[in-house]
Design goal:
Layout lengths: L8 E2 L26 H10 L8 E4 L6 H8 L3 E5 L3 H10 L5 H16 L15 H4 L2 H14 L4 H17 L25 H20 L7 E4 L17 E6 L12 H11 L8 H4 L17 H10 L1 H24 E12 L2 E2 L2 E2 L2 H10 L3 E10 L8 E2 L9 E2 L3 E9 L1
Parallel strand pairs: 1-9, 2-3, 2-5, 3-4, 5-6
Antiparallel strand pairs: 6-12, 7-8, 9-12, 10-11
Helix pairs in contact: 1-2, 4-8, 6-7, 7-8, 7-9, 11-12
Length: about 425
């Protein structure tokens, strides 16, 4: 039987190559594989469902791009993510902090930095291999800033802590441009001079500008940040069945360990701030737990799965574990959407052992099994998405292949 192929529309209207992707609070914090705000904005504006648009859901919200865009447009939104750093970023980005209070305590911060004295009894025992990842001087400076910020009012404290979160990672000995925890080569450590205090001040100044622009938009829309796992369920006290008008999201393209290492990227802040499960995030995300008892059935990618299994059975089961979780999540998300409601999924088709998996086809197939019809899939090039574009399918040095150069924007409607 011939495998069904779904419509793809190739266009450059979704590329946004020259757009400012750091508008408003989108500037606050880096995060792996962030969906650019222009895509979320265009999807909300151009593909709103028939009837009302009062509730938007992002079931894999990451750093909260969709939630910020929903709030800007005056639409209520709810997002969920198992990564505490993602929830922290999303919460701060969608909060209208008092600018006057922020400026007041920013001045206090600068004064504290100017009068810096090395802290005594630095307690960083909760940081794994702290001496391996930080110089003594940088660790003390970060510790000093943390203690200063923790004396600030709760209403603004997180604004400062989020800027510190970026510094915690960038000040460390981690290699630039990496999501995974790779230390700078020993012979290059002497070149590492991050200037902790200057870096922190620059980030606060950047974020204040974003906050000022964000606060100019005055509406009463509400944002809810949640931590439920859509693979298991969508709790009815958060979302009643059939209550969501629109889903705008960019789900993971595979398990975190072998695609984008969300857990490793986030571990710097998750450990520093003692967030829960700091070392276990990758295991908790979709496909993080390997299983061999699968519920999914697929025609759209069965040939690709056969190829992978023939090459490497272990990787085959890793891929299946992710797809099974993804399918369960889609089933639960489908129940939350009303009739004639729409989903907009931005996905990438990753390579595994040299075999490209058409995740867009699988996504459409899964939603069709839950009473959705396909409207269109737009193919865009990835000019500036912060994610690895090469991987090593054989884990051999230098044996790299291109992973993703395109994204697929899937639009479907519930029948």
């Amino acid at each position: 039987m011939k495998i069904k192929e779904y419509k793809r529309t190739y266009t450059d209207e979704w590329d946004f190559r020259t757009s400012d992707t750091k508008e408003y609070t989108h500037s606050y914090h880096t995060y792996p594989a962030m969906m650019i705000p222009q895509i979320a904005r265009k999807l909300i504006q151009d593909y709103k469902p028939k009837g009302k648009l009062e509730n938007i859901l992002d079931p894999y919200m990451g750093s909260g791009t969709t939630l910020v865009e929903a709030k800007i447009q005056g639409i209520n939104a709810i997002g969920t993510d198992l990564n505490p750093l993602a929830r922290f970023i999303s919460s701060v980005k969608t909060t209208n902090f008092n600018e006057g209070l922020i400026e007041k305590y920013f001045s206090k911060t600068i004064n504290a930095i100017e009068n810096y004295k090395r802290p005594e009894n630095v307690d960083l025992d909760h940081i794994t291999n702290v001496d391996f990842w930080y110089s003594k001087e940088n660790a003390e400076e970060l510790y000093y800033l943390t203690n200063i910020i923790n004396t600030y009012p709760e209403t603004i404290r997180d604004f400062f802590l989020l800027a510190l979160s970026e510094c915690v990672r960038e000040v460390s000995y981690t290699r630039n441009g990496e999501f995974k925890r790779y230390r700078i080569a020993k012979e290059k450590l002497h070149l590492h001079n991050p200037q902790t205090f200057k870096l922190f001040i620059n980030k606060i100044e950047r974020n204040i500008k974003g906050l000022e622009d964000f606060n100019k938009i005055n509406n009463k829309s509400k944002v809810v940040i949640a931590d439920f796992n859509t693979v298991n369920e969508i709790p009815k006290h958060y979302i009643k069945e059939g209550s969501v008008d629109l889903v705008v999201t960019s789900p993971p393209y595979g398990d975190s360990k072998t695609t984008v290492a969300y857990g490793q990227f986030s571990r710097w802040a998750n450990e520093w701030f003692k967030f829960e499960n700091a070392k276990k995030i990758d295991n908790l995300l979709m496909g993080g737990t390997k299983i061999k008892d699968f519920t999914l059935k697929t025609e759209s990618i069965k040939n690709e799965l056969k190829e992978i299994k023939a090459i490497d059975e272990k990787r085959y089961y890793e891929v299946l574990s992710f797809l099974d979780d993804y399918y369960k999540s889609i089933t639960n998300v489908s129940k939350a959407i009303r009739k004639e409601g729409r989903i907009c999924y931005v996905v990438g088709n990753r390579n595994v052992k040299g075999v490209q998996i058409p995740l867009d086809y699988f996504t459409i197939e899964a939603f069709e099994a839950n009473d959705f019809k396909h409207i269109d899939t737009f193919v865009r090039s990835i000019p500036n998405k912060r994610m690895p574009n090469k991987t090593s399918p054989s884990n051999k040095k230098g044996a790299n292949v291109t992973t993703m150069v395109n994204e697929f924007i899937i639009i479907m409607e519930k029948i």
